[in-house]
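4.2 Preliminary Data

To establish feasibility before requesting continued support, the project team ran the inverse folding procedure on a target of 243 residues. The structure was first converted into the token representation described in Section 3, and no sequence information of any kind was made available to the design step. The complete token record follows.
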């Protein structure tokens, strides 16, 4: 049976891979952040991302490079990739929103929706479900929302101040921007030429009720690889999942 929603889902994506990753040093002394390998996998973060995007129906990816761009481009040129990849490099700093707009200009289907993800996000959930959620709400942009766990144990007390329980690394109360997006074709025209879209475009769309938030399903894997500890935790979680 054919899927009636398949034609409206994105087949193209942008990966923002230009960050310096200063908090991941020394790993990022000689490579950009998305080129850092997840311990035990032999594959850099961006390799996992490209595989995931391909599994979700993406055929074309634009990778926006910056810090040590040649290292990333050389790997992309030599790797056996599951999608067609185009790389772009900003000739001058454009900010996150400007960089996203610049990269979007190189998408092969400017009149179709697209995915985007930050280059340090390692996750697995159904992008197809997220795209359907986006279409059902007639949104211009949809953010994936995560509930990361805090790195400390929490303490519960009763109304009298007595400790009643200890909870190891509970999820945070609020949902956070998970760094994965679905955008309608028109979104690219709403981005600034320079600057940060999270301070301009996103608040504007939220006021207009044209921005949606898709909660990553409970049990789905999500982690932002920001520090050396995140790499260690990712390796431990991988081992626990038997992957």
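Position-by-position output of the design step:
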């Amino acid at each position: 049976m054919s899927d009636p929603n398949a034609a409206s889902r994105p087949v193209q994506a942008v990966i923002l891979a230009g960050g310096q990753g200063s908090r991941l040093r020394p790993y990022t002394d000689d490579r950009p952040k998305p080129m850092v390998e997840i311990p035990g996998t032999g594959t850099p973060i961006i390799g996992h991302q490209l595989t995931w995007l391909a599994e979700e129906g993406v055929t074309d990816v634009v990778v926006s490079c910056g810090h040590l761009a040649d290292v990333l481009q050389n790997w992309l040129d030599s790797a056996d990739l599951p999608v067609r990849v185009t790389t772009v490099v900003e000739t001058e700093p454009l900010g996150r929103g400007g960089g996203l707009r610049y990269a979007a200009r190189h998408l092969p289907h400017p009149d179709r929706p697209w995915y985007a993800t930050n280059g340090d996000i390692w996750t697995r959930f159904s992008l197809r479900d997220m795209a359907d959620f986006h279409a059902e709400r007639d949104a211009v942009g949809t953010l994936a929302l995560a509930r990361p766990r805090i790195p400390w144990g929490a303490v519960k007390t009763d109304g009298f101040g007595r400790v009643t329980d200890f909870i190891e690394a509970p999820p945070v109360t609020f949902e956070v921007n998970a760094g994965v997006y679905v955008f309608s074709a028109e979104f690219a025209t709403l981005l600034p030429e320079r600057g940060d879209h999270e301070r301009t475009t996103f608040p504007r769309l939220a006021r207009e009720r044209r921005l949606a938030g898709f909660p990553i399903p409970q049990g789905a894997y999500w982690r932002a690889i920001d520090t050396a500890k995140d790499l260690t935790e990712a390796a431990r979680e991988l081992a626990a999942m038997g992957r």
